[in-house]
Amino acid sequence: GAVVSQHPSWVICKSGTSVKIECRSLDFQATTMFWYRQFPKQSLMLMATSNEGSKATYEQGVEKDKFLINHASLTLSTLTVTSAHPEDSSFYICSAPDGNYGYTFGSGTRLTVV
Amino acid sequence: GDSVTQMEGPVTLSEEAFLTINCTYTATGYPSLFWYVQYPGEGLQLLLKATKADDKGSNKGFEATYRKETTSFHLEKGSVQVSDSAVYFCALSPYSGNTPLVFGKGTRLSVIA
């Protein structure tokens, strides 16, 4: 079935640095990628929707300059957390429609900012 | 707007007990319905789905039926195992295509031996 590979699985970074999270669709073309953030013991919060070759659409309250999303190809979407702060620590998950009435999720990235 | 309501957890069951996690939805049109499972520290895995009324999704002993008349998609399993301990999310897709899923809040299930 459809697979989305998400890397890294976990990352620890210092405050003020930037971190890039990658999501690759391995056996299908992901024209759209959804990026979510999940706080402990909570549901997923949609951050933004990226479409290949165009600018991402951000949900209300999400800082587009802090969370840079790039979707340069049909198989790769990236989320860069810029100038990270401890409050950005969270679990980030990507998801793509797989063309079969379904959605495939990446395995998630645990970001810890120290 | 579209929304999903699922029963609050946590739910604690003994091994081999019967499981029901209620899920109801509000949507215009004819959404597709999903159950996803999340194990600790992992992403979401599709458990089952149904794309039209009266469809029954099933997988790994879990099943759910798309009930349009009651706008429900309750998850059931006849005999749970310790390995079923996870968080379960009910979700809907308003349209077939490139729209994000609408999630319920999730239900944490703990199965004890």
The gross shape of chain A turns out to be: globular
Structural class based on helices, strands and sheet pairing of chain B: mainly beta
Distance between the termini of chain A: 37 Å
Q: How many helices of chain B does DSSP assign?
A: 0
Question: Beta-sheet strand percentage of chain A?
Answer: over 45%
Largest sheet of chain B: 6 strands, mixed
Instruction: Give the chain pair forming the largest contact, with residue counts.
Output: A-B, 23 and 23 residues
The computed structural class of chain A is mainly beta
Oligomer: heterodimer
Sum up the overall morphology of chain B in one term.
globular
What's this, in brief?
Chain A is mostly beta strands.
Which features does this protein show?
heterodimer, A: 114 residues, mainly beta, seven-stranded mixed sheet, four-stranded antiparallel sheet, B: 113 residues, six-stranded mixed sheet, 12 strands, globular
Task: Reconstruct the topology from this structure.
The complex is a heterodimer of chains A (114) and B (113).
Chain A: E1 4-7, E2 10-13, E3 19-25, E4 32-38, E5 44-51, E6 57-58, E7 67-73, E8 76-81, E9 90-97, E10 103-105, E11 109-113
Chain B: E1 3-6, E2 11-14, E3 19-21, E4 23-26, E5 32-38, E6 44-50, E7 56-59, E8 62-65, E9 75-77, E10 86-93, E11 102-103, E12 107-112
Parallel strand pairs in B: 2-12
Antiparallel strand pairs in B: 1-4, 3-9, 5-6, 5-10, 7-8, 8-9, 10-11, 10-12
Question: How would you describe the overall organization of this protein?
Answer:
The complex is a heterodimer of chains A (114) and B (113). Chain A is an all-beta fold and 114 residues long. Helix content of chain A is 0%, strand content 54%. Chain A contains no helices and eleven strands. In chain A, strands 2, 4, 5, 6, 9, 10 and 11 form a seven-stranded mixed beta sheet that branches. A four-stranded antiparallel beta sheet of chain A has the order 1-3-8-7, with no helix packed on it. In chain A, a hairpin with a 5-residue loop joins β5 and β6. Chain A is globular, with a radius of gyration of 13 Å. Chain B is built from no helices and twelve strands. In chain B, the strands form three sheets. In chain B, strands 2, 5, 6, 10, 11 and 12 form a six-stranded mixed beta sheet that branches. A four-stranded antiparallel beta sheet of chain B has the order 3-9-8-7, with no helix packed on it. In chain B, β7 and β8 form a beta hairpin. The termini of chain B are far apart. Chains A and B meet through β5, β9 and β10 of A and β5 and β6 of B.
